[in-house]
Structure formats: structure tokens, C-alpha cells
Amino acid sequence: MSKILKSALLGTALTAATATAVMAEGVELEVTHWWTSGGEAAAVAKFANAWNATGNTWVDGAIAGSGGTARPIIISRIIGGDPMAATQLNHGRQAEELIEAGLLLDLTDVAEAGGWAEIVNPSSLLEACTLDGKIYCVPVNIHSAQWIWLSHAAYKSAGLDVPTDWNEFTASAGSLKEAGILPLAMGQQGWQQNIAFGAITLAVAGQEAWNGVNIDKNADVARGPEYTAAFEAVAAARDLAAESNVQDWNMATNLVITGQAGAQIMGDWAQGEFSVAEQVEGKDYSCLPGLGLNPVIDTGGDAFYFPVNDDPAITAAQKELAALLISPEVQVSFNLAKGSLPVRGDIDMSTANGCMQKGLKILANGGVLPSGDISFSQDTTLQIEDLQAQFWSSDMSAADAQAAYADIIANAD
To answer: What confidence tier does 88 reach under pLDDT thresholds 50, 70, 90?
Structure first.
């Protein structure tokens, strides 16, 4: 029996016969996720390889598209009685109703055996997996959305210095256009446009106003002058991305990698695409957390949940996998490939690239914010994403978009 399995089984009521069966034969577990871009596929392979090395088998259930595409499929299967053994979701409030319905496995015994409360940093990630004192997911990474990625090739072609913050970027946009370069790459999906909105808002409106809206859900702040400036800045960004005709986020990243676009606002998972393309931070591209103006990051990310089943051998294997995903070696290998930060605060990440080191420094200094998945319900998040999709794809005024947004915040849960 592996050390991981021994840890996972501490405190459980599995019989000796069941544990012996798990040891002897290994178990196939179907794992669903939406990591299908080049960088994401390279990262999830680290999980699969580690699981297969235990004598068990990872049956990959990749769902093409974004989380917005995958989540309804995942939830439908669980509710419909055809659950996978494990599934990616974002830790936060996406799984609340599944937990309340008794459809997800309680991992509290695994978490206590592994000392998750002592190693998960920040602690809010584990709290986001907890409901009524019980832990239902294992957080596997920290993803932050407040980054701008800049192409050195694009700026060299335009004869410009690479910007060091959002203001310098917007000032350079006209010269990029004159050189035939798209200033801002943007995928045509609401969640991507909402990431850009959030990053620009944090940089332009400032953290106090951002906290008032995203933490306190204060609609008056959302209607106030700080957010007026933010919506006007987003409207200007919309103009810079007007000729961006790609759909998926990784295609927008590729425009930056190939020098066809000057920049992209996207989460730190974009690093995986630069890595697969063998580009080097500081030489081929630059990354600016907080758009170079407000170096803070939110602490959202991914977690794995395990649907309840009535087979003790599957349950034992699910708990073994949960313990494996947060183990030190797997945390290092996965997050180096993914471009995300590890959830463990006790591992060596000295080999991480410059972008990850920036994130780690911000994390160590406490410059962290809750992600939207933690602050808002899924219903509220989808309303905001729908509004952003409408705003970015039309001539809706900044004032009208701000008014609609404030109404959403007034009724947010």
C-alpha cells in the first residue's frame, strides 16, 4: 500500500478486505476537467502520470471548451446518476448545491490526516472547500486573473519599448496600430471579457473601491466615480480589442506569442502556453501582475471534488487521489507546468520562472484578494459575464454598462 493511501485511509471505516482489494488490483478513476489547451494538457498529464505510477489508472475525461462549457455537463452527470470519480471545479461556491444534496464525498478525514489546515496557503482556499465544518474538495493551485502579457516581438516590430504598466500600454496602442499590430488580444467569451473588466477595475478604481463592490457588495460604490473611471477605461480597452476575432483564450494568447498582438489580459494560466511555445519570460514576453499598477492577485483556482458512489474500493481510491493531488512532489510538478502557484506553503518553488516568482512574492507579502468564485454565487457571476459579453460586443455606453452592473451588485448573493 502506498504511503498516500495509508494517509487517505486514516480514520475511515473501510474493511481490511476492501483495502486489500484496492492494493492488489489498482482502480480506474474517470477524471473530468476542462484543461485542453497545449499548456493545460501538459499540466494535467503530471497528475495523470503520478496517479498511474501508483498502480491505479487515470481515465481522462477532458471536456473541450472553457469551464462555462464544462461545468453544466459535469453537474448534469452528477445529478443524473452518471457521476465521474473525480472532477475539476473552481473552489468556491460552484458546488454548494451538490454538497447540500449529499452528492459529493466528504474528505475531512483525508484533510485531517494530511494536515491540510497547516499547509494550505492562503487558508481561504481550504475554507472555500468547507461547508458546515466538513471539507469536500482538495485545492490544487492558486490562479490569479490580474495579469497583462506583453509581446516583445510586437513592440520590437513597432520600434517601441515594452510597457511597464497599463498606462504605458494604452499610450503605445496608437503606434501598434500604425505598425499593423493588434493592440489587445481578446477572446470573444464573457468570462474572458469579465477577467479583463476585473483586472482593469482593480488597477483603475483601486483596491478600496474593488473591495467595496466585490467583498461588501456595495452597489453605491459600483455606481460611484471610481467605477465610472473603470468603466470608461474598459470601454477604451474594448476599442483596442475591436479587431480581435478569436474565440478561445489560448488563441488570443497565441496572438501575443507570435507577435501579432501587443498584449492580452489573462490569468496566470497563460504562462503554460508561453512555456509550450518555449518562450522565455523577460526575453520573449513580459508579465505584469495588477497590470503593473496595483501588484495584488486574487486567490482563486482549481479544486477536485469526488462524487459519492456505493463502491468502497472506488471511495478508497478517490481518497488516495485526493491525497496525491496535494502531495509535495505533485504540487511542484503540476504547478510548474500550469503556471499557477501551489496551494502548499511548505514546498520549494525556486525553479519557477520570473512570472511565478512575482506571484509568489505577492502571496508572501499578503497582497491577495478573494476570487469572484468565492465572493459571488454562480448565478451572480454568470449575470456579470453576460453583461460583459454584451458590453464588449456592442456599442453600449460605459454609463449604461455601469448602471446595469450596479443593479447586479445590488442583488448579488
So the answer is: very high
Q: Tell me, what's the pLDDT at 374?
A: 75
pLDDT in tens, 222-247: 999 999 999 999 999 999 999 999 99
Higher per-residue confidence, 193 vs 301: 193
Interstrand relation of 147-151 and 285-289 (parallel, antiparallel or unpaired)? antiparallel
SS (H, E, C) the chain: CCHHHHHHHCCCCCCHHHHHHHHHHCCEEEEEECCCCHHHHHHHHHHHHHHHCCCCEEEEEECCCCHHHHHHHHHHHHHCCCCCCEEEEECCCCCHHHHHCCCECCCHHHHHHHCHHHHECCCHHHHCCEECCEECEEECCEECCCEEEEEHHHHHHCCCCCCCCHHHHHHHHHHHHHCCCEEEECCCCHHHHHHHHHHHHHHHHCHHHHHHHHCCCCHHHHHCHHHHHHHHHHHHHHHHCCCCCCCCHHHHHHHHHCCCEEEEECCCCHHHHHHHCCCCECCCEEEEEHHHCCCCEECECEEEECECCCCHHHHHHHHHHHHHHCCHHHHHHHHHHHCCECCECCCCCCCCCHHHHHHHHHHHCCCEECCHHHHCCHHHHHHHHHHHHHHHCCCCCHHHHHHHHHHHHHCCC
Rounded to an integer, what distance in angstroms lies between the CA atom of residue 179 and that of residue 158? 5
Q: Given a cut of 50, is residue 14 above it in pLDDT?
A: no
> Which CATH number among 3.40.640.10, 3.40.1190.20, 3.40.190.10, 3.30.465.10 corresponds to the domain 147-298+376-410?
3.40.190.10
* CATH of range 3-143+299-364; options 2.60.40.3230, 3.40.190.10, 3.40.50.970, 2.70.70.10: 3.40.190.10
- What is the percentage of the chain residues whose pLDDT exceeds 90? 81
pLDDT of residue 90: 86
Please state, in angstroms and rounded to a whole number, the distance separating the CA atoms of residues 410 and 219. 5
Q: Is the pLDDT of residue 367 over 50?
A: yes
- pTM comes to 0.83
pLDDT for the residue 376: 87
Torsion of CA 78, 81, 85, 89, to 10 degrees: 0
